[in-house]
Amino acid sequence: xxxxxxxxxxxLFVLEGEAGGPFAVTSRAFAGEPVEFAxxxxxxxxxxxxxxxxxYGPKLFYSDDLSDEWQQAEGIALPExxxxxxxxxxxxxxxxxxxxxxxxxxxxxxxxxxxxGETWALNQWFWEQPTRPDWxxxxxxxCLHSIxxxxxDPARIALAISxxxxxxxxxxxxxxRHGNNGLYPRYMPEEARTDxxxxxxxxxxxxxxxPERLFMQFHGGVYRSDDAGESWVSIADGLPxxxxxxxxxxxxxxxxxxxxxxxxxxxxxxxxxxVRVYETRDAGTSWIERGDGLPSSNAYLTILRQAFCREGxxxxxxxYFGATSxxxxxxxxxxxxxxxxxxNLPPVHSVRAA
Amino acid sequence: xxxxxxxxxxxxxxxxxxxxELDGSTVAEVLQALEREHPDVKGxxxxxxxxxxEHINVFVNKDYGREDTAVNASDRLHVLPAxxxx
Lengths: 354, 86
What we know:
The structure holds two protein chains of two kinds. In chain A, a hairpin with a 2-residue loop joins strand 12 and strand 13. Helices cover 1% and strands 42% of the residues of chain A. In chain A, the strands form seven sheets. A four-stranded antiparallel beta sheet of chain A has the order 3-2-1-28, with no helix packed on it. In chain A, strands 4-5-6-7 form a four-stranded antiparallel beta sheet, with no helix packed on it. Chain A has one helix at residues 124-127; strands at residues 2-8, 11-17, 24-29, 35-41, 46-53, 57-63, 71-72, 88-94, 101-106, 109-113, 121-122, 143-150, 153-162, 165-169, 177-178, 201-206, 214-218, 221-225, 233-234, 243-249, 257-262, 277-280, 288-290, 308-311, 318-322, 328-331, 339-342, 348-353. Chain A has one helix and 28 strands. Chain B is an alpha+beta fold. Chain B has two helices and five strands; from the N terminus they run E-H-E-H-E-E-E. In chain B, strands 2-1-5-3-4 form a five-stranded mixed beta sheet, with helices on one face. Chain B starts with a strand and ends in a 5-residue tail after the last strand. At the A-B interface, loops of A face loops of B.
C-alpha cells in the first residue's frame, strides 16, 4: 500500500492505493486552501503542510497523526522591519541531525528548526546576503525551492532559488557562496549571460550515495555537477526539450535521474500532446523515454516543480507525479510502466510519498 | 470600546469569539490589541510588517479602513476576506 500526500490548489488530499491504481482519497485537509507542499518526515512520521491562504498568508502546519488537529508551526515570518512579507513556503526538508529541519520560501528565504518543525527561525546569514537587494524573482516568485543536504554532514548544504541560482555552505549555513559556474541563462541578453546571478533554477537534487553529484532542472537546461555544486555541465542532449520543472533521483543509484520535459517557457505543456517521463541511467549521457501507460495523445499537461516524487529505490522504485489537470500518475517499476492513480483532483501543486 | 467582528477561521483563532471589544484609536491599534489578547491570530490579518494583508478587507462600520484609519469607541470593525481568488 502506498500513501501519497497531494497538495492542490484546493487543499491537501491523502491518497492510498496499490500498484495499478486507482488510489482512493482517504482524507482531505485545508479544504479550499492552496497547499503548496506537503511531506512526511520519515524520522518521526510527522506530516507537514505548507498552506498559502490568499487571504491569511503562508502558514506551515504539522500533524503527528492525520486524524488529529493540525498545529501551526511558529516562526515562519520575516523580521518586522523587512520591506516584504512572506509570500509562500515551497519546501520542507529533514536535516542531518535529530530534530533539524529546513524550509525554503519566497522571498528567497531559508528557515531552520531544531525541534522537529514546531518552531522555526530565519537563517539570518542568508537573509543578510549583501546582494539580496539585487535579487530578481522568477515567474513563480523568488522561491527557495531546493534544499540539498549532505548525508551525515549537517555542515554542507546546497540551496537553489528561482531566480538567484545555487548557493553553497560548508558551515551549516553561516557563510554562503555561489555555485553557478557553467549555467547558461539564454533568457538573458547575450552580454549578460556569463556574469549574472539572475539564474532560474527550477529543481536541484543531490545523489545521496555520491553526494558531490547533483542534478538540476534549469529554466532551459538540464545540468549535472560532480563537484558538489561548484560547477555544472549540460546533460540535456537527448531530451525533447530542456525546459521543465520537476525532477527525481534514485537515492541508491547516483547515475539515475528523471525529468518531465515541457515544451518551453512560452508553452509549459507536455510536448506533442504526449505525457512522457525521461530517465537517465548514465548520469545524463543518454535519456530513455518512459511513457507506457501515460496519456499519449491530446494530452497537454503541466507538471509543477514539487509535483513529482519517488518511493523506495532501485528497480521497484515507485514514481508518482501530478498535473495541474488534477491527474496523478504512478509507476511501481521505476518508470517502465505507468498507471493512473487519480483523476479529477484540483490542480496539483505537490506530490510526496508518505 | 470598538467592537471587532470576525468570521471563521479568524473567530476560531480568537477563542471562538465572533465579536470582541478591543481598545485602540486606529485600525492597527485595535488589530494589535486583538493579537495581544489572542496570539493565535498573529500573522493572519496583519503581516509581519504590521500591514493588513493584501486580500483582507477591514471595514470601519461601512467604509474601507486602512491601518491608520481612526476608530472611535462606538465603531464596529469587520474583518473580511476580500472578494478575490479562483
